[in-house]
Amino acid sequence: MEIFDYDNVLLLPRKCRVESRSECDTSVEFGGRRFKLPVVPANMKTVLDERISEYLAANGYFYVMHRFDLDSVAFAKRMREQGLFVSISSGVKAADYAVIDRLAAEGVGADYITIDIAHGHADSVRKMIEHIKHKLPQTFVIAGNVGTPEAVIDLENWGADATKVGIGPGKVCITRLKTGFGTGGWQLSALKWCARVATKPIIADGGIRHHGDIAKSVRFGAAMVMIGSLFAGHEESPGQTVEVDGKLYKEYYGSASDFNKGEYKHVEGKRILEPLKGKLADTLREMQEDLQSSISYAGGRTLADLRKVNYVILGGENAGEHLLM
Ligand SMILES: NC(=O)C1=CN([C@@H]2O[C@H](COP(=O)(O)OP(=O)(O)OC[C@H]3O[C@@H](n4cnc5c(N)ncnc54)[C@H](OP(=O)(O)O)[C@@H]3O)[C@@H](O)[C@H]2O)C=CC1
Ligand SMILES: Nc1nc2c(ncn2[C@@H]2O[C@H](COP(=O)(O)O)[C@@H](O)[C@H]2O)c(=O)[nH]1
Predict the structure, then answer these.
(1) Who's near 102: CB < 8 A, 6+ residues apart?
(2) 76 closest CA partner among 47, 110, 105
(3) Which residues have a Cβ under 8 Å from the Cβ of 8 and sit 6 or more positions away?
(4) Is the separation of the CB atoms in 206 and 187 below 8 Å?
(5) Ligand 2 center from residue 149 Cα (angstroms)
(6) Please, is 310 exposed, middle or buried when counting C-beta atoms within 10 Å of its C-beta (0-12, 13-18, 19+)?
(7) Domain membership of residue 186 as a residue range
(8) Does 119 sit in the ligand 1 pocket, CB within 6 Å?
(9) Helix 212-219 to helix 187-195 angle, to the nearest 10 degrees?
(10) Number of domains in the chain
């Protein structure tokens, strides 16, 4: 198996078919809706809040609200009142079952529910998928996180409509250091490995450090890309603003960090400071422009054209050119 990651793969250009990058369409259909970008901010407390969720939903972007210190039913109701789609997160504990039951009983429902636990290849996830499908049969269920083809196959067979791939590649992740497990350091090839068996969309989660990594994720099978650190640190980001030597930063911490959990137990995340980087809308616009450029280098007009390009692996055992035959 080839082992590579975002920083040692480059995609190879094909003859340009557009006169302007503005002709390149970055939109994606996901769960019955069309979004401007195949990108979703990570469902983390320092990445998005209710206001950002509203902004994204109202402006044609996918979002997944986090599930920490939040009444997800009240959140869903407020989104509904504004005529916006509802996309929430769920764990697998009794309180999470109660949220699903209330969404059903109170007629609020949810358009998307993302079950995100650290080790998503688990019977607890199977039971939660079954519960959501029973109570809210119209809801599009995303399940994760996983890092192997076996797990993708199981989650799909258990009823998930999409799977989320990435164990430990995140910037504030310490899973691989604490447990010795994960896809950190080879996330892109893990994505390729999982995508080979997937029959439903995959969300590539974690490890994106540059906008070009979005095109690479799509090339290797992602329908959607979940991003934390690149979205943390905006003026609107919920993390606290911190000043160090006259420079402004925003805090960004892991959902499995003691900062998020409120206690030091099963900690698999840390806290870092992200330099303050302006407005979210500007980053989204730049991401779209960069992805339009990516599509043009692929000799295409749509995201699907990114899947057709060859690539090179730089350095290491797997170095070389990889041609599509
Ligand atoms: N993508 C990634 O690499 C990772 C992401 N995270 C994120 O951190 C947040 C908190 O995650 P998590 O602690 O799972 O959520 P929860 O605190 O909601 O726990 C979910 C349930 O899964 C159990 N659980 C968690 N990890 C394992 C495991 N390795 N083996 C068996 N059971 C497990 C927990 O029990 P108990 O605590 O008693 O074991 C609990 O019952 C989530 O948003 C998750 O996505 C966390 C770690 C890795
Ligand atoms: N191992 C851990 N992973 C975590 C934690 N909190 C979030 N995450 C994952 O990271 C991505 C975001 O990654 P980034 O590289 O874009 O910053 C996020 O979507 C989660 O899957 C954690 O505490 N531990």
Answers:
(1) 73, 108
(2) 110
(3) 313, 314, 315, 316
(4) yes
(5) 20
(6) middle
(7) 9-313
(8) yes
(9) 30
(10) 1
Say if 320 falls within a structural domain.
no
Residue 319 pLDDT: 80
Rg of the Cα trace of the chain?
19
| Choice from 88, 96, 117 to test ligand 1 binding pocket (greatest atom count within 8 A of CB) | 117
Atom from ligand 1 closest to the CA of residue 169: 3
pTM listed for this prediction: 0.97
Q: Is 218 annotated as a binding residue?
A: yes
Q: Letter for the amino acid at 9?
A: V
Which segments in the chain show pLDDT lower than 70?
Answer: 325
pLDDT for res 325: 52
224 is in an annotated binding site: yes
202 in a known ligand binding site: yes
The set of catalytic residues is 173
Q: In what order do the strands lie in the sheet with 247-253?
A: 241-244, 247-253, 271-275
Cα angle: 219, vertex 222, 223; to 5 degrees: 115
Q: In what order do the strands lie in the sheet with 140-146?
A: 39-41, 224-227, 202-205, 162-165, 140-146, 112-116, 87-90
- What does the pLDDT look like over 118-162, one tens digit per residue? 999 999 999 999 999 999 999 999 999 999 999 999 999 999 999
Say if 1 falls within a structural domain.
Answer: no
pLDDT of residue 297: 98
The answer to whether the beta carbons of residues 130 and 158 sit under 8 Å apart is yes
Residue 30 lies in a domain: yes
ipTM (interface predicted TM): 0.96
CA 247–ligand 2 middle distance (angstroms):
25
* In a domain? residue 2: no
Counting ligands in written order, the one closest to the CA of 178 is 2
List all residues 6 or more positions away from 312 whose beta carbon is below 8 Å from its beta carbon.
9, 10, 12, 319, 320, 321, 322
| pLDDT confidence of residue 105 | 98
Residue that has been written with the tokens 């590539």 in this structure: 204
Ligand with an atom nearest the CA of residue 205: 2
Sequence length of the chain is 325
Q: What is the CATH number of the domain that holds 305?
A: 3.20.20.70
**C-beta 206 within 6 A of ligand 2:** yes
